[in-house]
Write a structure and sequence with these properties.
Layout: E1 9-14, E2 17-22, H1 33-48, E3 54-59, H2 78-96, E4 101-106, E5 109-111, H3 113-119, E6 123-127, E7 131-133, H4 147-154, H5 156-165, E8 168-169, H6 171-177, E9 182-184, H7 187-201, H8 206-219, H9 225-240, H10 242-253
Parallel strand pairs: 2-3, 3-4, 4-6, 5-7, 6-9
Antiparallel strand pairs: 1-2, 7-8
Helix pairs in contact: 1-2, 2-9, 4-5, 9-10
Amino acid sequence: MSESTENPVLTEQQGSVLHVTLNRPQVKNAMNAAMVDGLIAAFESAAADDGIRALVLRGAGGTFSAGGDLKGMGTDSKAAITKGNRRFGEMLEVAQAFPKVLIAVLEGAALGGGFGLACVADVAIASETCRFGMPEVTVGLIPAQIAPFVLARIGLTATRRLALTGAMIDGRDAHTLGLVHHVEADTEAVEARLAATLQQLKKAAPGANRVTKQLLMELSPGVTARALDHAAELFTEALTGPEGYEGTTAFREKRPPAWAREDTP
C-alpha cells in the first residue's frame, strides 16, 4: 500500500480491549504528523468509550517505532516546526492522561518518540532484543518533547546518560532501568505475557482503575505544558541551526555527520 493511501494508525476492538497499531512499517513506523494525529484520535475515542477497558499499542512489521520521521524536517517555517514538535508532546500528554490501562508491546526498536511512548505506558512488555534509545543528539537535535516523560520514568542519572550519548540499550537493560515491566525472550513469549496481563486486568474494576490512575497521576511530579512549550522552541532552534542541518542531511545521505568522522579532533 502506498504512503499516500495507507492509514498510519490501525485500530481493532477485541472485546473490551482496543488494539492500536502504528502502521508505517516501510519506515519502521517513524512518526509523522498524520500518525500523531491518528494516535491522539485513538486515545480520545477509547477514553470516551465505556466499553473499552484497555488499549494495547504496538507497531506493524515487528518494530514499535524508530522515532520521528526526519524526512522533510527543516523545510517548514520556524513557527510550523515548533507547532509540529509541540503536537507530539500533546500526544504524549493525552497518552499519559488516558483513563484506561495503556499497554505497550515493544519489539524491534523503540527510539526517540517511540521511547517516549514506552515511558507513558502503564504496562510495558518488551522483547529482549528490542533496542531503546534517544538518538536525537547524534543528528544534531534534542529530545525535546520526550525528555520530561523519560525523566519521570527512569530518573535523572539514567536519562542523562542516554540523552547525552545517544547510546542504545536492549530490553534487559530497559527492564533494569525500570523503563519496561516485563522482558521476554521471543515473540511467542511476548504474546503470552500480553495475554496474561489482559487476563489479570479483568480482575480489576474499571471504575476503580480509572480513579486509581487519576490519583497516581496527581501524586506524581507532573510534566507541565509550559516546559513542553519551551522544549518545542528549543527543538526548532536545534533543527534550524548548523548542527541540525548537518545531522539531518547526513542521516538522509546515510553518512556520518561532520562531528562523528574519525578525523574529527
